[in-house]
């Protein structure tokens, strides 16, 4: 990308922080707009609330990431890889994600007990009927699963990988993911989930596993919010540990070749980016 004489192009990874701050601001502003729209009308149709929320998410996450990737002439196949995965891989990563969700629930309870942080499930997650349940699934599970991963495990992780090692890039992205949610209570959940999604992204060399795991995790929140089934730490550990450990054992064996291809792709992308900055 050509620049005017004397202009200095900032490093690509620094734009990761810029886009994170911009997305945070956009989310807050658009959320306020949504609240105003809802509060200024006596009876707002559910579909209008859902459409407003979904639009907010697309404008806050997907659009900025796509624009910056296009602006910096980054290869979509490197930053937003969408390589298909098999049905078996989907089932195993779902099993591992459910196992991790149980383990995270125990860790979350310990964290909340230490710091005396307890929050009831919001009424917004209460399913009233089938139509309302489907809208909640799209709004609270499928949409954030896609657009948030497009930004965090797509653009942000891709940019961090051009400067840092895989583990460091994953942790940095997970930290940004946690900070973005402005939720002190849910810090363990967001941090652990962010690391898991980043690990899946690198292992499979594709965004689809992270998107699927994210959507599944959010869907389980809806299940818990509408379920009266009691949980016990021993039961959650008994179910979570075997499922999660099986996924940790099975996935690397299945995806070793793709992980190596991903590492090579990002190394090549980093070299291209350095060459472009030197040329400009």
Give the SSE layout:
Layout: H1 12-39, H2 46-71, H3 76-79, H4 87-115, H5 130-161, H6 166-180, H7 187-204, H8 208-225, H9 233-279
Outline:
With 280 residues, the protein is an all-alpha fold.
Question: How is this structure best described in words?
Answer:
By secondary structure, this protein is mainly alpha-helical. The chain has one domain. About 80% of the residues lie in helices and about 0% in strands. The protein contains nine helices and no strands. The protein has helices at about 10-40, 45-70, 75-80, 85-115, 130-160, 165-180, 185-205, 210-225, 235-280. Helix 6 (about 165-180) crosses helix 7. The model is unreliable at about 1-10 and about 275-280 (pLDDT under 50).
Largest sheet: none
* Spatial separation of the terminal alpha carbons: 8 Å
In what range is the share of β-strand residues? Answer: under 5%
Order of helices and strands: HHHHHHHHH
Helical residues, percent: over 70%
Q: Which terms would index this structure?
A:
280 residues, mainly alpha, globular, disordered C terminus
């Amino acid at each position: 990308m050509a620049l005017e004489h004397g202009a200095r192009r900032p490093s690509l990874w620094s734009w990761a922080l810029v886009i994170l701050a911009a997305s945070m601001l956009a989310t807050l502003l658009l959320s306020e707009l949504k609240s105003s729209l809802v509060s200024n009308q006596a009876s707002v149709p559910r579909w209008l609330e859902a459409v407003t929320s979904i639009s907010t998410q697309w404008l806050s996450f997907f659009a900025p990431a796509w624009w910056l990737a296009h602006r910096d002439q980054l290869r979509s196949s490197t930053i937003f890889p969408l390589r298909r995965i098999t049905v078996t891989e989907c089932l195993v990563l779902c099993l591992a994600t459910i196992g991790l969700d149980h383990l995270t629930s125990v860790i979350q309870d310990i964290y909340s007990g230490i710091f005396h942080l307890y929050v009831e499930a919001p009424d917004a997650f209460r399913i009233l009927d089938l139509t309302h349940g489907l809208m909640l699934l799209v709004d609270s599970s499928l949409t954030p699963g896609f657009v948030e991963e497009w930004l965090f495990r797509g653009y942000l992780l891709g940019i961090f990988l051009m400067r840092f090692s895989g583990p460091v890039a994953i942790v940095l992205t997970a930290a940004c993911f946690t900070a973005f949610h402005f939720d002190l209570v849910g810090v363990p959940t967001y941090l652990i989930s962010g690391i898991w999604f980043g690990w899946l992204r690198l292992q499979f060399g594709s965004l689809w596993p992270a998107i699927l795991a994210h959507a599944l995790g959010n869907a389980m929140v809806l299940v818990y919010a509408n379920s009266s089934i009691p949980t016990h730490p021993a039961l959650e550990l008994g179910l979570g540990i075997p499922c999660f450990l099986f996924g940790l054992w099975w996935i690397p064996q299945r995806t070793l070749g793709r992980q190596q291809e991903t590492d090579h792709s990002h190394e090549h992308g980093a070299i291209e980016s350095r060459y472009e900055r030197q040329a400009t």
